[in-house]
Amino acid sequence: MFPIDAHYSDFPQKFWNSTQFRGLVTGDVDVRNYTNYKVRFDMPGTDDNLWYSFKVGPIHFVVISTEVYFFLLYGGLEAIYSHYKWLDDTLRQANLPQNRAKWPWVITLGHRPMYCSNAALRYCRLDSNPVRVGLLRSYGLEDLLYEHGVDVAFWGHNHCYERLFPTYDGKVFNGSYENPYRNPKAPIHITSGAAGNQEGSSNFRGVRQPWSAFGTTEKGYTRLVPYNKTHLFVQQVSAEKAGKIIDSLFIVKEKHGSYAKLFPETRQKKRKRGRFFKL
Q1: For residues 143 and 267, is the Cβ–Cβ distance under 8 A?
Q2: Are 152 and 252 in contact (CB under 8 A)?
Q3: Most buried among 37, 43, 203, 258, by the most CB within 10 A?
Q4: Can you give the pLDDT at residue 84?
Q5: Residue 3 and residue 241: Cα distance in Å, rounded?
Q6: Smallest Cα–Cα separation from 256: which of 87, 94, 109, 88?
Q7: Dihedrals phi, psi of 2, to nearest 5 degrees
């Protein structure tokens, strides 16, 4: 798994030949219209590999593209529409009872996060973040994650690690005060981008938002362990401290599915969709 981005897809071919990938996410590779990525990797599901899904054990991984909102030169509005429709259809199928019985955990992998606390990355602190709410309020992805019951959303781009409380529409929906990750009432967002980068780390702001549970710029990687259909274990492993675990949590879900249906009392007023272009 390489769930961060293809920022280094122009590395020498020898490196990529010796490495097997699933869960590669496109991002920050606009210089050559994703050419290095497209010709070097063969991901399941689509011709150009930019979004796809696959299953491992009890997990259905859904790899999405956040770049369609930022590089209109390479796909325009059609790319936004195609990606949104594909994601809606894929998550709808994943959330069918017979599919949830086989693959109860639905996890998305994307490049640019919907939420962050980093000082220099302003877009993911804004209500207008296009990954969340769409381009001109059209075809945002956060509602899809909520409506179709995505359990965890992993992101990269930011050179840090940040774990959120269960969050939707900028609000925290913990399972309970004592056990926020037991039967959470919204997706759990985790940015795992701390493996190291020549540009340096993405430092955090002094004041965090209520949805930010933990963050660090310490270099490391994230470990994911699905114990069964109800328990998922997440760890952040420090490379600077010889493999020490610096963050961990058990996500416990007695039921999987649409948060709007499982917890109707927390359902938010549906966002107004923009009129710039229609499905």
Answers
A1: no
A2: no
A3: 37
A4: 96
A5: 22
A6: 94
A7: -135, 70
pTM of the full structure: 0.86
Residue with tokens 């994703």: 34
C-alpha 18/C-alpha 20 separation (Å) is 7
> Which one, of 147, 158, 256, lies nearest residue 201 by Cα?
158
194 versus 248: the higher-pLDDT residue is 248
The more confidently predicted of residues 30 and 217 is 217
Q: How far is the CA of 107 from the CAs of 63, 141, 154, 155, 189, in angstroms?
A: 9, 14, 7, 11, 10
Torsion over CA of 229, 156, 83 and 79, rounded to 10 degrees?
-170
| Cα separation, 202 vs 124, whole angstroms | 13
Model confidence band, residue 277 (pLDDT cutoffs 50, 70, 90): low
Neighbours of 197 (CB within 10 A): 15
User: In this structure, are residues 248 and 120 in contact, taking their beta carbons and an 8 Å threshold?
Assistant: no
Distance CA 19, CA 224 (A): 20
Residue 241 reports pLDDT greater than 50:
yes
The pLDDT tens digits for 29-87 are 555 566 666 666 666 666 666 899 999 999 999 999 998 998 877 778 888 999 999 99
Helix (H) or strand (E) holding 134: strand 134-135
Q: Which two tokens stand for residue 104?
A: 């109860």
CB 15 within 8 A of CB 37: no
Q: How far apart are CA 226 and CA 122, in angstroms?
A: 33
Question: Residue 183 to residues 40, 111, 176, 189, 259: CA-CA distances in angstroms?
Answer: 40, 26, 8, 15, 10
What is the C-alpha to C-alpha distance for residues 172 and 176, in angstroms, rounded to an integer? 11
Range with the largest mean pLDDT of 16-20, 120-124, 157-161: 157-161
Residue 259 and residue 268 in contact, taking contact as beta carbons nearer than 8 Å: no
